[in-house]
Amino acid sequence: DAYRYYFMSDVQFGHDGAISMERMVQVYNADLANTWGNLVSRVTNMTTKYFEGRVPEAPAGAEENPLREIADELYAEYDGCMAQVDFTGAAAAVQKLASRVNLYVEESAPWALAKDPEKADELAAVLYNCLEAIRIIALYMAPFMPNTSADVFGRLGLGSIAEVTDIEAATTWGQLPAGNAVEIGEPLFPRLDVDNLPEL
Predict the structure, then answer these.
(1) 118: helix, strand or coil
(2) How far apart, in whole angstroms, are the C-alpha atoms of residue 36 and residue 27?
(3) What's the confidence (pLDDT) of residue 200?
(4) What whole-number percentage of the chain has pLDDT above 90?
(5) d(C-alpha 25, C-alpha 101), whole Å
(6) Are 147 and 157 in contact (CB under 8 A)?
(7) What is the mean pLDDT of the chain?
(8) For 184, phi and psi rounded to 5 degrees?
(9) Domains of the chain as residue ranges with CATH
């Protein structure tokens, strides 16, 4: 999956492109280890810690959040890129949402909310929004990383991602069922050290 992602996201389809192990590791660490893999790990860990490994019920008003704003506009950009065989642009569009979710976690500080019982609803909203965004990202990432997306779907207690046939309908916000069992699992993409890679 990491190889697929690198070649689809960093090398413009239909054009000559320079490839190298060093650049591949840069993309892997930046997009997959630090952004996508880290996001899935930290959110599933917090869900396990604060909600006993279950998707929390989203309180009223939780749907009004910056993640949904991006998600609601993402399909048009993603579909437009895919129609033009612009895999690089499609991947970049999805990464914008993944990066925003990581920033949302830092801004919301669930670990601080968890210390105040009066902010239980706010904590539930934050983690539901993060989990729902992860579900949507997994759907958009499936053409790039089918095995990883299937793994993430499983961690969210969802069915087979291969059964999804209407990406626009499937990525509509708010479809992650409350109460689903969430699994942490192994790190999706452990960081790589370019200095310790085997010689090619």
Answers:
(1) helix
(2) 12
(3) 46
(4) 84
(5) 23
(6) no
(7) 93
(8) -80, -55
(9) 2-11+21-191 (1.10.730.10)
Structural contact between residues 187 and 36, judged by C-beta atoms closer than 8 angstroms = no
Entry field: residues in the chain: 200
Q: How far is CA 174 from CA 58, 74, 78, 128, 137, in A?
A: 9, 15, 19, 9, 13
Unique residue bearing structure tokens 């952004």: 35
Residue type, 22: E
So what's the pLDDT on residue 144?
Answer: 96
Q: Show the CA angle centred on residue 91, arms to residues 173 and 12, nearest 5°.
A: 155
Helix axes 120-141, 87-108, angle to 10 degrees: 170
What pLDDT does 28 receive? 94
Copy the structure tokens of residue 53.
Answer: 């490994």
Q: Which two tokens stand for residue 127?
A: 């983690």
